[in-house]
Amino acid sequence: MIRYCLSALLVCVFSLSSFSQKSSHILKLDIGSGLHTLIDKNFSSQIYTGISTSGGLGYFYQTNVSKYKTLFYADKGFYNEKKLFPNIWSIDIDFYQMYLRNQFVMHISSFSDVNYFLGASTNNKFYLNTITKFKNSNNSIAYSIISDLSISNLIEYNFSFFSAPLTFVWAVDISLLTHMLRPLYSGIISNKNKIIGQSKFSFINESIQTRSEIELFYNLENGNKIGLSYFWNYTSYDSNKPIKYDPVKYAQHSLLISIYFSFI
Q1: Under a CB-based contact definition with an 8 Å cutoff, are residues 95 and 128 in contact?
Q2: Which residue in 89, 121, 201, 229 is a FRET match for 16, CA 20 to 30 A apart?
Q3: If you write DSSP's letter for every residue of 26-69 in order, what string do you get?
Q4: Where does the record locate the signal sequence feature (predicted)?
Q5: Does CATH place domain 25-263 in 2.40.128.100?
């Protein structure tokens, strides 16, 4: 009996050792630019388009059956000025954005060189807009803090193109539960000391948070990679409860140069 137990223990230790050998730690760096579209009827019925510079830092831990990653992105940009009444009334918006994402997915199935992963993610987004509404007037600020729990889908495909080892990744997140924090559900704060507003939980019928990311990488030696990343981020929320506020729609398209550094 003892011999069987020792044999089983050795098998478990060997399995865990083999499993750990297939794990890796990865550091990711991103830099690029983004195109932004904003509709916030709390301060204007106009559609605003803008550009930004973007940067990101991420940590990945992955094995042959699972992937975990933490990503942090930051954007700084501006929206095009809208001259509603020339020389009298215009809206000029500068914006900052920070984004923290945690994702865990498990390998579900494989077909040839295509692998499918399924899991969950948490996403925390902070938007800050500095708004000048009248010429030579004091700035107002508008902010949103949005956190959501999402279902994550990931497809990974490894292939060769003229003997170059490439990896194609397509990831899609769809929110199930969202928490929003906006002062009184209004886009503008005239008093900068008023930074605490009302919060709200919402489901997909009131708030839509989606994110789609496409990556194409050239695989270097020792697990390092370099390539391009494109991601599309869409946010929409609208509700009449508990306080009436106008709908907000926001979309971001970003193209980034990404570098992966693999280490043990």
Answers
A1: yes
A2: 121
A3: EEEEEEEEEEEEEEETTT-S--EEEEEEEEEEEEEEE-SSEEEE
A4: 1-20
A5: yes
Distance CA 15, CA 22 (A): 11
Please give the distance of CA 255 from its chain centroid, rounded to a whole number: 13
CA distance to 57, 117, 123, 217, 263, per residue, from 258 (Å) = 10, 21, 20, 8, 16
- The angle at the Cα of 190, spanning 189 to 194, to the nearest 5 degrees, equals 60
Place of tokens 């990556």: 215
pLDDT tens per residue across span 100-126: 999 999 999 998 889 999 999 999 988
Q: Give the global pTM.
A: 0.76
How is the chain split among helix, strand and coil, in percent rounded to 5? Answer: 10, 70, 20
β-pairing verdict for 140-161 and 89-111? unpaired
Cβ contact 91:80 at 8 Å? no
